[in-house]
Amino acid sequence: MAVSKLFGASIKRREDPRLITGNATYTDDLQLPGMVHAQIVRSPHAHARITRLDVEAARRHPGVVAVYTGRDLQGALNPSPTAWLIPNSDLKTPPHPALAVDTVRYVGDGVAVVVAEDRYAARDAAALIEVDYEPLPVVVDQVKAVEQPGAPQLHADVPHNVAFKWVLAGGDADKAFEDARRDGVVVSQGFINQRLIPNAMEPRSVVARYNSGSGELTVWYTTQNPHIARLLMAVVTGIPEQKVRIIAPEVGGGFGSKIPFYPDEAIVAFCARHTGRPVKWTEDRRENYLTTIHGRDHITDLEIAARKDGTLTALRGKTWANLGAYLSTAAPGIPTILHGLMLTGCYTIPNISYQVLGVFTNTAPVDAYRGAGRPEATYLIERMMDLLAARLNLDPADVRRKNFIPPDRFPYTTAAGLTYDSGNYEPALDKALEAIEYSRIREDQKKGPKRGRYLGVGLSTYTEICGMGPSAVVGSTGFQGGLWESAVVRLHPTGKATVFTGTAPHGQGEETTFAQIVADELGLPIDDIEVVHGDTGAGPMGWGTYGSRTTVVGGGAIVLAARRVREKAAKIAAHLLEAAEGDLVFDQGRFSVRGSPDRAKTIQEVTLQAYLAWNLPPGVEPSLEASAFYDPSNFTFPFGTHVAVVKVNAETGEIEFRRYVAVDDCGRVINPLIVDGQVHGGIVQGVAQALWEGAVYSPEGQLLTGSMADYAVPKAHMFPTFVTDRTETPSPHNPLGVKGVGETGTIASTPAIVNAVLDALRPFGVTHIDMPLTPERVWTAIHGKSRR
Amino acid sequence: MIPAAFEYFAPTTVREALGLLEQHGDEAKILAGGHSLLPIMKFRLAQPKVVVDIGRIPGLDAIAAAADGKITIGALATHDALEHSAVLKEKCPLLPETAAVIGDMQVRNRGTIGGSLAHADPAADYPGTVLALDAEIVATGSKGSRTIPAREFFVDMLTTALRPVEIITEVRVPVLGRGTGTAYVKHPHPASGYAVVGVAAVLAVSGGKCQRAAIGINGVSGKAYRAAAVEKALVGQALDEKIVAAAAAHATDGVEAQSDLYASSEFRAHLAAVYTKRAVLLAASRAA
Amino acid sequence: MKRTIHVTVNGVTHTHEVEPRLLLVHFIRDVLGLTGTHIGCDTSNCGTCTVLMNGKAVKSCTLLAAQADGATLQTVEGLARNGELHPIQEGFWEEHGLQCGFCTPGMMLAALDLLQRIPDPTEEQIRWGIEGNLCRCTGYQHIINSIQYAARKMRGESPRKAAR
Fold this sequence. Notes:
- The structure holds 3 protein chains of 3 kinds.
- By secondary structure, chain A is an alpha+beta fold.
- Chain A is built from 21 helices and 28 strands.
- In chain A, α11 (374-392) crosses α12 (396-403) and α19 (672-691) crosses α20 (744-760).
- The longest helix of chain A has 28 residues, at 550-577.
- Chain B is α+β, with helices and mostly antiparallel strands.
- In chain B, the strands form 4 sheets. In chain B, strands 4-5-10-6-7 form a 5-stranded antiparallel beta sheet. Chain B has a 4-stranded antiparallel beta sheet with strand order 11-12-13-14. In chain B, strands 1-3-2 form a 3-stranded parallel beta sheet, covered by helices on one side.
- Chain B is globular, with a radius of gyration of 19 Å.
- Helix content of chain C is 31%, strand content 15%.
- Chain C is built from 5 helices and 5 strands; from the N terminus they run ββαβββαααα.
- Chain C has helices at residues 24-31, 87-94, 104-117, 123-129, 141-154; strands at residues 3-9, 12-18, 50-53, 56-59, 72-74.
- Chains in contact: A-B, A-C, B-C.
- The A-B interface holds A 119-120, 123-124, 127, 284-286, 651-652, 654, 692, 696, 704-705, 708-714, 718, 774-776, 779-780, 785, 787-788 and B 1-2, 4-5, 43-44, 187, 189-192, 261-264, 266-267, 270-271, 274.
């Protein structure tokens, strides 16, 4: 493909004018004629039997249209299926009733729903519902849930609360550890990847309308994947798929939390069908914290084996993954496929042995949160690289360099069985070290602390798997879907274009980047191109936006469709110009005959002729549009190096976050401004895990971090200005050469910060602190005191 | 999040407001800026039957130097007004320094000093400062006004010396003279911004020695308090870092430091000592 | 008992009977239909609901509509004039100051209050000035660039930075 005008240009986003003027429509902004409001009554207990449920007073409350309980929904709604049935793991899939019938299993589990004329009446009536609970024993810790004698069992057919046991083995790890114990080095460490709350700024919201005349159900809602939502809505409600339309209007962030199919959307659809009125439900932030999925929550024992020169030979470990009270839609695949397979990172580690237990506890369900499994994996291996370096008294950069997969070995098949498409890790490392002035920082460190503040620098050299993905491969991992993507590129008689994608961007800017791609391919002015997404009634089936797949897979489909349009246009142009197709040159939206530049037709002229169809070549159908379904041949593997510099105040454990450099390689870059924005946002979420965030349940199953006044979503003043840079190693199999960048920042930054803090604490002999690195934890580690 | 229904009154005089409080007793709550009351009403942790919005009473938001050498601050003066008050910046800069770190800009635009003091949140920022300033809180009841010294005002967590039918109408603080330095430093909770520890220091220094010290501490105990042992250890001393650190080590003498998810009792007590040291050193440098 | 309130929003005076407990943000969104103002947290932490009241940024989820009786409000819908974007809107567009856009209206109005106070803020002042507004997408860096862009433009300088 010739280097073109818009690919690579930092053009400003076409999404923005509606968003900055208040003209965007998010789900909760919708007002439909006759619309009523739903309020879901939720369990205040983490585990209890419902002994009495009295809704009569609520029913009589002024403005109340209907009240439903779990019994009313029984039989009317099927359980929502689990979408990732990881094989050979003895996976248990206990159903999650949309509203509890006799037992609640986490605080926030729904027990009833009130539908009323306005939100205020619905809220008041909800307070009138009387529920008697008989509390049952509670377990919130995943290790205790499995191993503590007498731990309560959440589901009758799930002994020891083990939802699955997944085993990964490649090479011979046991032998490698034996060897290392004999004449190498073994480093062991326990890690906690604490539970996080995704915190999309827009809470979830659903508006459902059922037309009893046509049998059509239309649902507007906050989803990252409307087509999957339609499929699941059809399965759950029994309404035939062709009668279900899902529309994701403007969606205010997701970060994975808007992938799952929640009980709530089924409840709202039920209410719409049974009241005959359009129904709106919007969670408040407390409900969001209690019931929208959480992320991470791993407890891991890990060890690595290496030779004395720092060459890694094996990795072995076990993770207890907390899944919450029920399986969320994609839950089983996150701590296994997306986590375990990436544990070896960007290093040649020939032997791996790893086990993951998925565990039910009396907490909110856990599913994909930005990075989904990969931040956990990157944290483990990148922390281990620093521990190994410290053990061998080597520089962390050198240990990494020594173990990088060399550039001439790509495509590279890892011990876990993945084939990395491309990589060239050292240039990114070099660039990052230079930008941060690594050797100067090491010199400064030698001078000792200044005013009690200890300087630390931390590295994270990462690679990650994204661009999900080849359908046959994800199918073999138990994913209950394909992960190809669709596109339709349709030119209209006036020469304008509409592009339909099966992905559902919600902030990532693909209305702009996709238009850049199509503008280049067809030589159209970018303003003549509209990108349509998020409506199952508008375009073909697609699988949605998550896993940094939208530009990679969705963009792949779009470029293929655009090229088909161009091929058809070339046929018509050749016919109109009475030239052989092979003699045509296409440049800047103009077909001309080679050698006679004046004999030419613009794409707009060709398009009009395609629609008029007065003079089409034989066998060419009227109109000018094409569709494409792109199923990638492999995943993509972005990589890079992030470096953080911190100062730690030894007196208080307070951390000053001083500098940050990110050098990412996400393949070819369509819009650098947008890529920078993705990286910045990702870094902040990853740093937040390292330093501030963490969802905490009491032993009784109460969420102690239940609001934004308790759970520290970071603020602007907590960060320095990030320096971003790139290397460019195109994906060899992607038609655009792109790799994806939506999650790199989150995946890379967490260990960079933690490594920096622990680097600063080396004078104190502190080697590990679990996240978040609160002042107290740091202070306690320095001063050797046990907390509580 | 929707509050339970209530009856709403917006009196335009203090007398009218007091009449409403008298009439409705326990069922009434006073609303000033609303930033303490409305959040708990939205969670339905408070469900008053009657809300008396005093925000429309004119004349209660003035900040002015009074004839007696004090500065009077109307109860409805917002944190933002205190932060930017020229007279306070000149004559009592501890209050603007404190106001500037309350909540965020939007919260400061609405929240009032009267509302904050009446709420008596132990992690709020004003209490320690008014204690250190030996401020006076003027409360008006149906029988007239009385002056409550700050040291008698904070009774317990969320509990003050205010009577049921009484409204804070004014806060009076001294003009700080030459040779007096003040400082407010705080370790904010990363989510709420409330003080995990907040320390206000007022120091009079002459001849290189501390003549008077007043230290007010927020966030540590169930109520803000004066750190008497620290004050005692500072007076008469030349304030070098060693002496200040030794004095600050008494920051929680006689006080049980609170424990929560963010900071244990032990760590909070340690932070109190460190922040007391920081506040004193900063105030001392300003006194010079 | 309902109360009659008069509120001037973006230059238009509205008179409505409201329940005393009606939150200002619900009045703006549900009664007036100005849905550019969003609700993100309910605890006055996130700033998504920020509007200007009598010229100052406030969190409309922590105000009763009744408290705004007689007040003048400005919401995101009132930023652009005669089809021309406000410099703050222009800055957010030019500098990629938004991704999902949900926090953006509140963020822009907080920025407006900040720039009214400090026409030439440092990066540090901007970072602290928007501490009452959470953004989960951008990592804030482009928001800061956007506010700096707006500040330059509002001061009558060339808004664009020399080099990106």
